[in-house]
Amino acid sequence: MATLELYELPGCPFCAKVTDKLDELGLEYESHEVPQAHSERTEVEEISGQTGVPVLVDHDNGIEGMPESSDIVEYLEQNYT
Ligand SMILES: N[C@@H](CCC(=O)N[C@@H](CS)C(=O)NCC(=O)O)C(=O)O
pTM here? Predict the structure, then answer.
């Protein structure tokens, strides 16, 4: 199981903000592409309580579903630099 997992959508600028930071920090992660339809984003909703992406999972640090790109970028900077 990968430590870091990211739920994302191609072409999503908020997701790109996070993947740019992951790449910048040289972090590997497992990517999960979510469905376009919000009603079908059941997995994201289960882990984060909402249907927006990006959502980060960091198993090693007990992060089971963090939404909000700015929060994720800040989290990565604080924990992986
Ligand atoms: N404030 C959020 C915005 C994210 C956002 O709007 N993501 C879009 C895809 S690019 C989405 O999934 N929106 C879901 C929604 O509006 O409920 C963030 O920065 O993460």
Answer: 0.94
